[in-house]
Amino acid sequence: MTADRTPRPGLSGDSIRARLLDRALTTAIARAAAPGRIRFTERQLYYEMCRVLRPVHTVPRRVPLTPAPPLRYERFEETLRRRDGGTPGLLAPLPAAPSMPHQPVEPDLYDYGLPRLLVCQSRSVARMLLANDLHLEAACPVFAADDAPLDPRLVAGLGRVEGATVHVLHDASTAGIALTARVRAEVPGIRVASMGLVPRHATALHLISQRGPAPTPATAPGPAGAASGLEPRELEWLADGRTAEVESVPPARLLRTVLRMVRGPRASGYSVWTGLRELRMAGFMTWPSD
Prior knowledge:
Largest sheet: 4 strands, parallel
Oligomer: single chain
Number of domains: 2
CATH class of the largest domain: Alpha Beta
Low-confidence stretches: 276-290
CATH topology of the largest domain: Dna Topoisomerase Vi A Subunit, Chain: A, domain 2
């Protein structure tokens, strides 16, 4: 009697890799949504999965590092499509054509002053910030760069407040660096501040970076980049065709950083007790009276 040499069913190398990617995706979903059920974009989930597979974010920040992605985006999409039961917290894809900005029903809304406004290079990032109610917490309208030019009534509202600021949130890329100057030209007389990213942020946070073709002389930052405070090593980083997207920042860190920068620094003398005293004097609807 001869032995049965029929190969027994088992796990192939591809099946093992698929299971490992499925497990990494599950971990990435939990991390992207923490804490407090944060809403996130598909690209944010991709970068979170890259950090699960290659945790370079644990390297000390004094070591400058912008690693290449350990996983192709196409493979991530395959893993995401293979997932059963949906993905809690994941925002639906953007429509093919962006819808027109919502027009307020209150006719006098634009009659008030506007102390701050946020312009995002990426429409996906703007949508993620809105989905997590940042515009309500920071009392700051959020727009995408392709909404430009801004409504003249918004610009007029900014002009009514002394020190009003337009914050610009952009990728660490030549196009991102140029966006701040473009917005500044669209709102003359109003302070425009770049929130980043810039290459030094990307290297300090060890963000995943992509490498594309080197910028042409017409698109290279050059003097404009130096004027925006970029160091020579940052200009070299951009000249190599490197980019780092805002969506590569962990969602919780992105929300905290944008909220802190838009609100501005808290007064040094602030404490819980001073905050309670302010509420005591704010009015009859904020504190019980005797």
